[in-house]
Amino acid sequence: xxxxxxxxxxxxxxxxxxxxxxxxxxxxxxxxxxxxxxxxxxxxxxxxxxxxxxxxxxxxxxxxxxxxxxxxxxxxxxxxxxxxxxxxxxxxxxxxxxxxxxxxxxxxxxxxxxxxxxxxxxxxxxxxxxxxxxxxxxxxxxxxxxxxxxxxxxxxxxxxxxxxxxxxxxxxx
Length: 173
Hints:
The chain is an alpha+beta fold. It has 5 helices and 6 strands; from the N terminus they run E-H-H-E-E-E-E-E-H-H-H. Strands 1-5-6 form a 3-stranded antiparallel β-sheet. A 3-stranded antiparallel β-sheet has the order 2-3-4, with helices on one face.
């Protein structure tokens, strides 16, 4: 028998721009989507069946001035204040502000790293190094450290910062 199961969203980074601000700010969102999709299309031609639905693209609905984003699932209208998301596969879609804030949080890329990411990388480095350590625990001081009681936890967080910074500088995302 098939029954519902619980799932957690994977921690992936997306790009997003919010439809707020001046006309120039909103135009920048339009240009971003246009440059990374099949481009602009005539939404009325699609709605009225004169042209097929493009796999991706952006338009402005002449009836109400809202952005219209074309996806493989169909047309999606975006209101002022909505977030436009570029997903993990490069697809674009709108998201209401309350859903966006409940689902996403900013990711620091330039030198500062999310604590959860640091902790995960540090634990992975710690696990890789485990055969070379004695019985030191992740959360206990390192008695062999001549500089004092540096916890393994802090040591591996520092190692994770170095690894993530090097990866970022090398262009790895």
